Amino acid sequence: MDPFDSNSTERASLPRNMIENSMFEEEPDIVDLAKDSTAYPTFPALDPDEVAYEPRSSRLLVRGLGENDVDDDEEDCESSARLLGMSFMNRSSAQRSHSSPYVRQLPPRSCSLPSARTTVVCVLFLVIVASMTMVLYFLPGCTFTKMGCPKSNNKTSTNGTDSELFPWAEFRLPRSISPLSYDLTLSPDFNNMDFTGHTVINMSVLHNTKRIVLHSENLNITKATFRIGNGDASDVTILEYKPRQQIAVKFSKELKAGQNCVLTLDYTADLSHTYDGFYNSSYIDQDGNKRVLAATQFEPLFARKAFPCFDEPSFKAIFQIKIKRKLEYMALSNMPKVKTTLLANGFMQDEFAKTTVKMSTYLVAFIVGNFTPTSKNVSDILVSVYSVPEKKEHTDYALATASKLLEFYNDFFEINYPLQKLDLVGIPDFLAGAMENWGLITFRETTLLVGTQSSPLEKQLVASVIAHELAHQWFGNLVTMSWWSDLWLNEGFATYMQYMSLQTVLPQLDIGNLFLAMRFRAMDKDALNSSHAVSTEVNTPEQVEEMFDSVSYEKGASILLMLNASLSSDQQFRKGIIQYLKQFSGLNTDTDDLWNSLTEVDLSNQHPNVSEMMKSWTSQKGFPLVTLSRKGDQVTLTQEHFLLTSDDTSHSSSMWTVLVTYVNDNCSLAPDCRQLFTLSAKSGTLKVPESVKWLKLNYRNTGFYIVDYGHDGWGALIDAMSNNAKVLTQEDRASLIHNIFSLSKLGRVSFRQVLSLLNYMSNETETTPVREALLQLNNIYHQLNKRYEQGLVTRMKSYILNLFGALTEKQTWTKEDSVSTQELRSALLETACYLEENKCKQQAKDLFRQYIDSNGTFQIPGDLQRVVFSVAAQSTDDWGTLLTIYQYATYDSEKQNMLQGLASTPHTPSIVWLLSAGLNGNIIPTQDLPSVIRTVCRSFTGNLIAWDFIQENWNQLIEKFPMGSFAIQRIIKAATSQLSTQLHFNQVQSFFSSLRERGSQLRSVQEALETIRLNQRWMERNLPSLDKWL
Ligand SMILES: [Zn+2]
Predict the structure, then answer these.
(1) How many angstroms separate the alpha carbon of residue 461 from the centre of ligand 1?
(2) Which one from 217, 436, 469, 1010 is the annotated catalytic residue?
C-alpha cells in the first residue's frame, strides 16, 4: 500500500459555524466565541483543565493541547549530548519513549472510533464542557483560568452591544467593507522593546452590513472610536477572535452601501522577538557595542502584528506613516520623508509622504535604527543603498547593479517605476533573503553587501536577489495576486525576470547555469505526490506560508521560460506582459488574467491557445514524462504523469499540452536546429528521416518535462556522447544526466545504464553537466553513508574521485574571475576534499595556514573559502581559531563561509554547541540556523545529532520560524532527505504524527516521508547493481 494517498495532502477546509441569517451570500457566518474551537479542527477531545476561557469580549483561548512535557528551557547542549550515546538508528520509537527523559507524551486519546461505553463517557464529558462554558459565559468581568478568577477583565471599551458573538467565522475577511486609506503613527521604545500605535482607517461600505471585521494579532487595543462620514466619533467595543487573528466591531444599525466611515484605534504591543511583524533586532558594532534596531517583515500575514488592518493582498489602500523616534536614530518607510518635528518629550516625529499608489498591507514597511546611505539619481528616482555605518564601503556594487536594473525594467515593462525613491537596506538580522516592500526593499546583508575582495560568485548572488526584488516592484507591487493561492504570479515572475534581466544586463555573471540547476531541483520536488498545483487553494496560515516553495518560485519561473521559448519571438512574450501590467496596474489578478493577456498577443497560430495550454501547467500538480519510441521514420511520443512514488501512474488522468522541442544528429547545437511538436493528447506521432541516428528532446531543457528515450534511444545517445560530447549543448548534456537519474529513481532505466552515460564524464569540462552529475552521485554517496554501508561507501568514493580526478587535478587555488569556472572548481574541490582526497586537503590546509599567518592581509578567494574552512574545521584546534575569527569578522559573506566551515566539524561537542548557539542567537544568528542544520546533516553523526536536536527543540523552532515557512521546510528537508531505511521512516513518521497541530499536517513532512520511501525503494532495487558495478 502506498501511504502517500493524494487525499492526505488535501487540507480540510475550516468548518463553518453557526449560520446567522445574513443579507449577503459572501458573509454568512458568526462564531459563538464561548463555544467555538474551529481554529483547531484536528484537536482531540479537550481536557477541561486545559481550556482557559477569557470572557473579555468572549475570547476563547486553548492552551497546552497536544503539547509535550519537554521543558523548552532545558539546556539544548546537554540534552543533545545525553542522547548522543544512543544512535537513533538503533533505537526503536518504543524504546525511545521509555529511555529518554525528553520523550514526547502521546497526545490525549480522542473520542474517535468509540466503543459504546466511550461514547457515553464522551457525551457526558461534552455536556459538562458545554455547561461550564455557559456558566463561564455568564460570569461577567472575569478572566477564568485553572486558578479560578484571578483578575478582572480589561475591556477595550463598551457601548453595550452583545459581545458574545464574534460576527465572522471564515478565514478570509468579508467583502462588505473596503479600506481606502490608513494613517499610522508608531512609536517604538527600545528600552522596553515595545511600541504604541495609533491607526486611523478610512473605509468605504460596499454592501449594507452590521459589522466590520479586520485583522489584529497580539495588539492590545486600548481605545477604539468610530464615525460615519463627518459625524461625531463614538467609542466602540472591539471583539477579538484570536485563533484567526481577527477583530470586529458590531453595529445595531446597518451601515449602508456607499457610506464612508472611519475607525480609529490606539494600541500597544511588544516588538516581535521573531522575524516577522514589527520586530527588534540587534548587532554588535565594530567597537563591540550592542546596537538595536526595529524593522518590519509583513509578508505574508504579519502586518496585523504592527497595526490593525485588512491584511489580505486584495485590500489595497493608501498609506500615510509617521514614526516617533529618539534623536540618535533614523527612520525609513516606503515613501520619502517630508517632515520632521521635534516633540515635547524630546522625541522626533518623521512624517512620510502619502503613498501615491494603492498598496497591499504586506508591502508596507518601516525601519528605525542607525543606517548610512549611498545614493544615486537614476531616471529621476533617488536610489539609495543603506547599511549599518561600518559597512558603507560594501554598498557600491549593489547601488550600481540596482541602478542598471531599474533602467532595464523601466524600459522592458514600458511603465516607469511609480514611486519617487527606491531604498535597499541591509538588515543585520533578517530571515528571508530579501523582501520587496514597495520603495523600501529589505535584504540580508549577504544578499546586498559585497566588498572589494568579493568573488564574482558573491556578486552573482547579490545581483540576482536585487534583480528579483526589483522585478517585484512591478510584478507583485503594481499588479498583485488576488489571494495567496496565486502567489506564483508574484514569485514565479520575479524569479523568471531575475534570470532574464541578468542575462541581458550582466551577462558576465553566467546566470544561465544557476537557472538550469534550479529547474532540475524544482522538477525533483514536483515529481513527488506531496507536491501541489502552481495555483492551489489555501485556507490556513500554514498553507499560506507553504506556498513559499519551489513550486511557486522555480516551477512558476520554469513554465514562463517554457512559454517564452516556444513563442515565435521574445518580443511577443514581452508584449503580452506589458499588456497585462498596463491593464491591471494598481489592481489584483488571478492566473487566468495573465494567460488571457498572453493569448491576446499570440498571433502566431503556432499553438492551440496560450490560455488553454498553460492552464494544464498551473492547475494540476506534477509534470509529464514523455516517452519516445521509434520505428523507421515514425516517432511516437506518449505522455504520462511523472510520479516518483507511485508504481502505477496509469490511474493519473493528468494531461498536459507539451510543446516538445527536438534536435537530431544532423543539426543539434544552434537554435535554428530546434523543431517543435505539440503533444496535446496522450500520444502523438511525428516523422523523421530514417537516416537520423538519434533525437534529443527538450532542447536546452527549456521545457518542464522529462524524456525517456527507450533502451535503443538511450543507447544511441550514450554512443554519440562517448564519441564526442560536444554534439550537444552543455544544457542538453546536463539535461540527459538529470533525466537518466530521475528515470532510475522511477525504475525505468537500470543503474548500469546510468553509469554508461556517466562514462563520458571523463571528457566533460563544462560546469552544468559536471555539477549535475556530482550532485546526483553525492546524493547516493550520502544515502549509503547514512545506511552505514561502509564497503559501498568506500567504493562510491573511489568511483567519484576517479571519474572527476583528471578535471579536479586541473583546478587552480588562486583568484579566478569567471563565474562559471568558480562554480566548476568549487563543486569539484568541495567534493574532493569532502571525500578526503589527500592533495585537495593539503592544498586547503596550506591556504588556511597562509590566511592565519598573514594576520588579515591574505584573502582566500571567495569561492574557495567554504572548502578551505571546512577542511580546517576538521581539526579541533583550527575549529577554535575559526570560531574566534568568525566572531570578529564583519563581512557577512565571509562569515557565512566560516559558519559553513564550522558546521562541517566531525567533533560532536562542537556540533551540539553550534546548534544550541544558533537557537539562542547570541553568537550564531538564528537566521542562519537552517543553513547550519543543513551542513551539519551531511555527515552521519551530524545527522543523528541534528535530528535529535530538531525533535527536542521543535516548539522553539516553530516559535522562531513560522510554521510551514521556508525555514521550517529547509530544516525538515535537511534532516530527512538522505535517509533510506524503514527504521528511519518509522521514526520520522512517529515524531511528526505526535506533533498534531504543531506540524503533522505540513506538506514538507509529507514530502520528507515520501522522499525516505523513495530512497528506500531505490536502495533496495539498486544495492546489488552498486555492488556489482562500482
Ligand atoms: Zn520574491
Answers:
(1) 14
(2) 469
